Amino acid sequence: MSEKKEKISAIKGMNDILPADAPLWELFENTAESVLKSYGYQKIVTPIVEETGLFARAIGAVTDIVEKEMYSFTDAMNGDLLTLRPEGTAGVVRAVVEHNMAYDGPKRLWYKGPMFRHERPQRGRYRQFFQFGAEAIGFSGPDIDAELIMLCRRLWDDIGLDEIRLELNSIGNADERQRHRADLIAYFEANIDVLDAEAKRRLHANPLRILDTKNPAMQDLVNAAPQLLSYLGEESLAHFEGLKKILDAANVQYTVNPRLVRGLDYYNRTVFEWVTDALGAQGTVCAGGRYDPLIETFGGKPTPGIGFAMGIERLIELMKAQGEPAAPGQCDVYMVHQGDEARMKAFILAERIRDAGLDVVLHCATPAGAGSFKSQMKKADASGAAFAVIIGEDEVAKDEVAVKSLRAAQGENAQQATVAFGAAVDYLVDQIVGGGGEHDCGPDCDDHHHVHRP
């Protein structure tokens, strides 16, 4: 008797996406891709692993991400310092600079994929998490800022989310932040007894981040701190007012939050967050802003940029909280069969139906056996298929199939029809697509059954 092996579990904070949740993920991803395409954004894919220095330069050496949260390691082959990407913007900008993508004009780009941060797992906040993001490179005006915000609003509408609100701020340019920083440090030094240990650690390294504290004992102090908006010069103010003017004209609701600063060093001017109260402490579902200095920092020519990133897990949680839509079925047709000859004919017909553009699940044997007609029909119904195609000994003898509707109400149309084997594909296409079996794809297409779903 073999020794029982100990189970291996997933790493803490790195989760499986199971088939039951996959339809909701597909709904979100397909909708997001469609919205981005409608605004002219093109997909870019960058490596999961980058040089550690990329993130230290882009995000900032004294940020929490770089100091405490990155998964970094030394390449055993050549000694390079490498990091699993903690966010998407740095890699996209690195690719833009490396491949001279902006030399022939501005670019609208989008990406999706896993990111990694070693932090305490919470609801909607994991160590491996998935982001959807967009970057607009080479645009300097507030109109592109507004476009990205309005793109997000369209996505929320399309996936049915209405418990999300927009918060805006401008953090100005480097010289404006420097003046504000000096006054902010002086203000906090004068109230040093109120600061907690984390705020004291950040005081001289990154005092802006103190404004984002969640410590209740510090809220009055933070609320009374000098506001960066008061330090903005004429150009920064004009940019911010221009953004608000476009959003007002487009009827986009927002709140100006002077404490919104974001945690990455590369931001300037516009910063924004889409937040919700429906997910507890993890209220930010999408965040972004302008990063005009970043491309030059990476060795490129001075080029403005702005982008956002949204956490897919948090948005999936929010979609569930607001009423998870019914999961779509696995297939259009489920093939039920009994006997060796029937099984062979089922294989042949399943391929023909797939050639016509429909999705088919063919019943296959398990260690318990092939299964009775009754047990197969239970699986057919559970699959979400619109129709079951049944082939048994009688159907083989008569060169026919039985087609049973799995979704029609009692008494609605015929519950089951007998169809000649050679006519089954056309019959199913007609039933499922409603006469959409014939089509015209042009002179090079010879598939006369291919389905074009409405």
From TrEMBL:
Residue ranges constituting the Aminoacyl-transfer RNA synthetases class-II family profile domain according to the UniProt record: 1-328
Annotated source species: Massilia forsythiae
Gene: hisS
Gene3D superfamilies to which the protein is assigned, alphabetical: Anticodon-binding domain, Bira Bifunctional Protein, Domain 2
Catalytic activity: tRNA(His) + L-histidine + ATP = L-histidyl-tRNA(His) + AMP + diphosphate + H(+)
A GO molecular function held by the record: histidine-tRNA ligase activity
Entry binding sites for L-histidine: E87, G88, T89, R117, Q131, E135, R262, Y266, Y267
Complexes and interactors: Homodimer.
NCBIfam families on file: hisS (TIGR00442)
Protein keywords: Aminoacyl-tRNA synthetase, ATP-binding, Cytoplasm, Ligase, Nucleotide-binding, Protein biosynthesis
Protein name: Histidine--tRNA ligase
EC number, as in UniProt: 6.1.1.21
Gene Ontology process terms (BP): histidyl-tRNA aminoacylation
Phylogenetic classification of the source organism: Bacteria, Pseudomonadati, Pseudomonadota, Betaproteobacteria, Burkholderiales
Primary enzyme class: ligase
